[in-house]
Specification:
This protein is mainly α. It has two domains: 172 residues, no CATH class; 186 residues, I/LWEQ domain. Helix content is 77%, strand content 1%. The protein is built from 14 helices and two strands; from the N terminus they run ββαααααααααααααα. The protein has a two-stranded antiparallel ribbon. Helix 3 runs antiparallel to helix 4. The longest helix has 35 residues. It is globular and about 60 Å long. The chain starts with a strand and ends in an 8-residue tail after the last helix.
Length: 381
């Protein structure tokens, strides 16, 4: 039994560190990121982006549900491991269906039924373990209802399909605030570490996008320069998220919070906030593919906006996370987000390489100024 700061006992076996099986699970989930990024790059317009925004919302909700699951129910028994494998299979089917989920009947139905499998496994594991059973009993019907919306929507077309899937996402967002799910026990260290790991793995999608964009092209100096500069941007995102040891500070702060406040912080920062982080990575990866594929050419408006906008969304979400935990400074990061808009015309009227180089310059200046004015006390002389 674990005793919360509010003095309430909970039947839970909280995991302190992320297991290798959870990392394996995350690798399957990140295939979803790869597929969503490819979907954006293929349909880089308002309709295509809207579809990805909604698909990511419903998928991310259940992925986050599995983070809460393994936080309370470590996959240490054969039954739990095998059920988690079934859940991974569901995510894999969903991922395979993503590219044509809105224009092919078989893909749409595979998405819906795969999502239902993911939901059923999640509920079954929680129920079988007994961890937080009261909270799960309140959430299970809603999770199953949202899965039903996804399945039914898969058999509809056009706006009706989009509406039902958007409705499922909306129900998921509202549910924790009306079902008292925030009474669920949470181990901060495992929870924060798990989300950090999925971010670093998702950043790998941006690196993969460099290779995908360069396929079949002559390896000339312009291509090499664009590839190296986009790698520098991936590095900048890593630095923004991991460079100040924010994970340790977030864990310390969450551990001091009462149970409900801790869970609310987890829901907002790591549920809603990390959705924005991942969406930023998706948009950026789509922009990277365009930039690397045509380094000397002008980008169209959507490509140029996606390249800079994805980075801006990631950094803006990062700033909000830091503010939430009282971590600073943030003024230079805010300045960088605003300055990124000025790089978009370079992509549209000069070249992809010019926009990429300008973005690198913006982030480098912001990073250097922040480091010089607010040096790390552990490394400052």
């Amino acid at each position: 039994m674990a005793l919360s700061k509010s003095g309430t006992a909970h039947a839970v076996q909280s995991s302190e560190r992320v297991s290798t099986l959870e990392l394996f699970f995350d690798l399957v989930f990140v295939f979803t990121i790869t597929q969503l990024s490819a979907a954006i790059a293929h349909d880089l317009n308002l309709t295509g982006i809207t579809r990805v925004v909604i698909m990511l919302a419903v998928i991310w909700w259940m992925y986050s549900g599995y983070v809460w699951l393994t936080n309370a129910v470590p996959p240490t028994t054969p039954l739990r491991r095998c059920l988690l494998m079934v859940g991974m299979s569901g995510f894999l089917v969903v991922s395979l269906a993503i590219p044509h989920a809105f224009d092919d009947h078989d893909s749409a139905s595979a998405f819906g039924w795969g999502y239902l499998v993911v939901t059923l496994v999640h509920t079954t594991l929680f129920q079988a373990s007994g961890a937080g059973r009261a909270s799960i009993l309140r959430n299970a019907p809603v999770n199953l209802a949202t899965a039903a919306l996804v399945v039914v929507g898969a058999y509809l077309h056009g706006g009706l399909q989009l509406t039902l899937w958007a409705g499922a996402a909306l129900v998921q967002i509202v549910t924790p605030h009306v079902t008292n799910a925030l009474a669920f026990p949470l181990s901060a260290r495992h929870f924060v570490e798990r989300h950090g790991l999925v971010v670093i793995i998702a950043l790998g999608e941006s690196v993969i996008a460099i290779g995908a964009g360069a396929q079949g092209l002559d390896l000339d100096l312009k291509l090499i320069a664009t590839a190296v500069l986009t790698l520098a941007l991936c590095f900048a995102l890593w630095w923004a998220y991991f460079g100040d040891d924010e994970e340790a500070r977030a864990v310390a702060i969450m551990d001091e919070l009462p149970l409900r406040a801790r869970n609310m912080r987890g829901l907002t920062v790591y549920g809603y906030g990390h959705y924005a982080l991942l969406l930023g990575i998706l948009l950026f990866a789509a922009g990277v593919k365009s930039a690397v594929a045509h380094p000397a050419d002008r980008l169209d408006a959507a490509q140029a906006v996606t390249l800079a906008g994805g980075l801006g969304l990631f950094l803006a979400a990062n700033v909000v996370t830091r503010w939430t935990f009282g971590i600073g400074p943030n003024s230079y990061r805010v300045g960088a987000v605003l300055s990124l808009a000025a790089t978009i015309p370079l992509g549209m009227f000069a070249s992809a390489l010019a926009e990429t180089a300008a973005i690198v310059a913006v982030l480098t200046v912001a990073g250097v100024l922040e480091t010089q004015r607010y040096p790390d006390p552990d490394t400052a002389g």
